[in-house]
Amino acid sequence: MKKTYRFILAVSLLTVGASGVYVLQSSAEGPQKIEAPAQNTVAPLLDSKSLQEKMINAIDNYQNVSGSYHALLRPIDVDEIVHFEVQQGANPRSHITVKNNKTSTSQETVFDGEYYYKLDHLNKEYVKRKTDVETAASFDKTSPRHLTKESGEAVFTHRPDPSFASRAGDVIFPQDYGFWLTPNNHQIVGTEKMLGRSVVVVEGKHDDPKLAGNIKQPSLKCG
After folding, report:
1. CA-CA distance, 223 to 220, in Å (whole number)?
2. pLDDT tens, residue by residue, 148-170
3. Mean pLDDT over residues 24-51, rounded?
4. Are 150 and 158 within 8 A, CB to CB?
5. Number of domains in the chain
């Protein structure tokens, strides 16, 4: 059975286009606690196509973002706290830490503009590798991002993240959520206020029966 779910996209983050620090704290359970400078930004209700475009190219619309969120996905046994500090623009950088609440272990990654570091605190080791920054910088965002094969299979083109902040992507670069938006699986139901900003509320259904049957009230809130 399909389960209805809801997520809220703070479109003001994607439309302001100015440098600043945005803080996010969210959890799949219990009351939400979010702290950030209040702004009197009013966003109009978007159509699905415009909303999808903002989601799959979100990194074009901010410079600096920091925050944390709780990833709790019981069907696939995920319970993690993700902290992130990310800089986009001319000098992309990132610092991500992920704490596994089940094992009490943590992972840490750092991108300094040229090299990507993955730190293993438990074994006191790290891996350093040179990144392909040119590919991310030269990506043509105007090229088709969603194609359909003759067999009917959907093919999505993911845009590389210049800051290499993959674990923060669900919040600051939600391409996967954007690709999910098709005309038949969701509807824009209105707007709400969060952090003094107008946000778009989207409701839809999970096609994955494992997720649909086990998550009671999943949500995503970005700010």
Report:
1. 10
2. 888 888 889 999 999 999 889 98
3. 49
4. no
5. 1
Q: Residues 6 or more apart from 8 whose CB is under 8 A from it?
A: 192, 194, 199, 200, 201, 202, 219, 220, 221, 222
Which structural domain, as residue segments, surrounds residue 80? 4-221
What span, in angstroms and rounded, lies between the C-alpha atoms of 79 and 209?
A: 20
- Among 217, 175, 182, residue whose Cα is nearest residue 28: 217
The pTM for the full model equals 0.69
Provide long-range contacts, Cβ within 8 A and 24+ apart, for 27-33: 27/69, 27/70, 27/72, 28/70, 28/71, 28/72, 28/73, 28/217, 28/218, 28/219, 29/70, 29/72, 32/221
